[in-house]
Amino acid sequence: MRAFPIHAAKVADLQVRIVHLNGAVFDALAAGDLTAANAASPVPLSAYFAGPDWRSVWRMRSEQVAEDPASADWVTGVIWDEDGDLAVGRAGYHGPPDAAGMVEIGYAVDPAHRRRGYARAALEFLLRRASDEPDVRTVRVTISPDNEASYRLVAGYGFVEVGEQWDEEDGLEIIYEAAA
């Protein structure tokens, strides 16, 4: 059985960790099968994880990990609240560092758990991990121009606007980068 890496962060009074998932969990979540996902997951997941809002992310990660199993240690995992024993969101990188040493961060919190500091805890963990990884030189986030909450979150961490891009699923995104 594959060991799941555990990474932890403490922000304010929150104790969270990012729990990495494997291909079986990604496959089940991509299919919307919460029962199968929970049978393969190292932590229990709520119905929101298998719901329609995140299904495209799980499909993408399922395909990615099938092509490159080692990427599972980098891509989307579960934001786990240690004190509440609760899966509150998802966070990770879009993949391992590219040839230029860039990783892109992605995170989302279940609406039932927003505005409690979970996104900040996940971001701080991912930034800390990036700074500890010798192959990472740049950290990127992309944010929809109308997503003020995400912009306010990353604004205090040294990110600067470097351009924009069109994402087939999310539309226009502003690209922000910071040195790892």
Question: Spatial order of the strands in the main sheet?
Answer: 1-2-3-4-5-6-8-7
Radius of gyration: 15 Å
Low-confidence stretches: 1-8
Approximate helicity band: 25-40%
**CATH fold title of the domain at 6-130:** Aminopeptidase
In DSSP terms, counting alpha (H) and pi (I) runs of 4 or more, how many helices? 6
Describe this structure in words.
The chain is α+β, with helices and mostly antiparallel strands. It has a domain at 6-130: Aminopeptidase, CATH 3.40.630. 31% of the residues lie in helices and 32% in strands. The chain has helices spanning 23-30, 34-40, 47-50, 55-67, 118-132, 148-155, and strands at residues 6-11, 14-20, 77-81, 86-93, 102-109, 138-143, 160-167, 171-179. It has an eight-stranded mixed β-sheet with strand order 1-2-3-4-5-6-8-7, with helices on one face. A hairpin with a 3-residue loop joins strand 7 (160-167) and strand 8 (171-179). The model is unreliable at 1-8 (pLDDT under 50).
List keywords for this structure.
180 residues, alpha+beta, Aminopeptidase, eight-stranded mixed sheet, 8 strands, 31% helix, globular
Give a quick summary of the entry:
This protein is an alpha+beta fold and 180 residues long. The chain has helices at residues 23-30, 34-40, 47-50, 55-67, 118-132, 148-155; strands at 6-11, 14-20, 77-81, 86-93, 102-109, 138-143, 160-167, 171-179. It is built from 6 helices and 8 strands.
